[in-house]
């Protein structure tokens, strides 16, 4: 290389290094003093004044709730706080302040401290004591630091606030309350002349308005450019309006050819802002993730995003983990949001405080609408003075998240109306403020209303109906139960904006003072769609189907099936043909085969190009052997590859399908004995004993072993006397027929016809099979159960394998979310939301039964083929929860242990009976009139 070329190369290397140096020097640096979350912590010195492990200095993980580290004492929010007033924690932590920081601005930032925080640096107060647990606060500590040396951070945290309105809002609320530095702590190192913060309004048409806050008088101009999330510059932005007042720059620009943000397509960009001095030298630069979207709350109309009227399919969510309380990791935020998206939700309400920053970041990137909320709880409301600070801290931190559409000024009568106008002081987007559980300005956000309130005929019928809590999910009630009825009405009401379920997860805390047991404080915190560790309850899948953006009208497949389905696009921003759908024709194997099914045919479905909120049809290809299939599955997948839902359509009736599995071989020898009011029959090595007085099965013995299935069929809710028990011997079978007296002679089958008697008919085949046919007399409307029941000891059951809807149990008002398939569940004794958290629950009602193989612990199980359509299996008796004082989510089950019924009850919520939750929850069952009796036909194989 020549000397000249060497000098040129050296010059350009120097220029590059200077450029890199300038770029790095004008960006802020973050240095964590704590860890970043539950699974990433740093040990600090710690002293707790009261309760567990108090009275001496030790260490504690930061961030954390100190109860979960074994300190202090527990309390659920509604407890008396008198015993907590003396409880405080002292923290100490040493850190090095680098020498090169001396000419920079150093801030210390606390993302969340419960509850009052006094911060000192090297023995001097960093600023005023901060009050309020869920809000980010900071101090500029440049003048308190010793550069090039070790510095001491001290924090005193009082668990109970000196401000009584803070205590009422946060520590008397309906959730677990803790103590400690529960969110990260870090230093922010910025240039001397720096951007303090920015507020951005990126609209759907590409317009960007930004407020840039800097106290430096050296800032003379502003540059802006747009990049993708990989920092690839897309375009420089020309500032069309630019004015400065009191250290704040107000600028306007326009981005071209942008993609808007919405939950279905959460397009994000990086907006970089540079402030320059008079010589065009960059003093400081900052980058913010933004999404282009416009929010409008149109009076007497609805809530619109990017010009589209929105139906919010939402849930309330706490920042919570069982082992760490309010200290949560980024991974948990992502996991929860993915589960919400999997349930086809598009919105989440922050209950009842601003969440971790990483949760909002994930809502931006994964796509969820957000209501961000300040923490209050009933009356009295927050003091105005402290409330103004809290509102500012909330909005300043969260203002730039495109996911946030609305602010909530507290919860359930806790609103301080003096604060309503404060949000606009800090929010450049001027988002609307709502009062959850209140008729306020444009919205009616009523909570836990009965179904008939959807008539919306009150004085607020001109308000946007927007319940921020409905269908309370205590234990197994609410959530999915009732949702189909509510949503059918809500989505078709012009002024309905959808709503939010209560709530996402059971808040069961690991009690370090009680051998690490899970505690929901009775029935206060067992309200989730999922368990404390994300265990999916049945409602999870009901919600997934009811809130599917692809709605397929109910369809039954008959021999004349033409392959056409009616479909509706319930997306807001997505054409139906952007999704994929697969049709799969499947044939099942029998109860004793290890392979559960085989696929006969699989094909792609061409979905029509339907715009949002339009209807059409699609066709399914019928293979030549389609009538040999047992079920048709339709699986829809969205553009991101996530399953929307899988719908199942049985092709054959139970009787037709079961015919292939029921043993039809004949044996010719019987042994029949009638003695001591019993009929004993031996067929193919199986001994059956029936009562000569009632016709009930009394005992089954196979290969010398008792199978403890007996005492049935008892006809439920029937008290008629037996007229006769007849025995009839045929060539390869014996029939035992029981006829009951007829008390009610009113014509209820059909006009001018008298009611038939109830009849039980057993057929014992010579090959050992046992058929049962029960004919019921009809009543058009009944309360209680219509069906039959048997006894089988729960202690003998180890599991079951069945063909029917599953794997979760159902209620009358929660039938959706299941799939018709061969399922297999092991026995468990889960009480939903209270014990075990093993899902699906083993015990309860299961719909569309075709056959079930009951597994016995001592090889004493059996198989039942159900040859009647629309029959429910009742498997054992679930225990009702212990903390249900009004019995709204406690169910009265039929007598016996295993039942086959034609109707099942609905389930209520914490605040409602099932009757008030819509038509599907009604306790009366209408069977109509029929020329034929209602029948249950079963075949038993022992």
TrEMBL record:
Residues 1-21 form the signal peptide. Residues 748-864 form the Beta galactosidase small chain/ domain. GO terms for cellular component: beta-galactosidase complex. GO terms for molecular function: beta-galactosidase activity; carbohydrate binding. Monomer. It is an enzyme of class 3 (hydrolase). Its EC number is 3.2.1.23. This is beta-galactosidase.
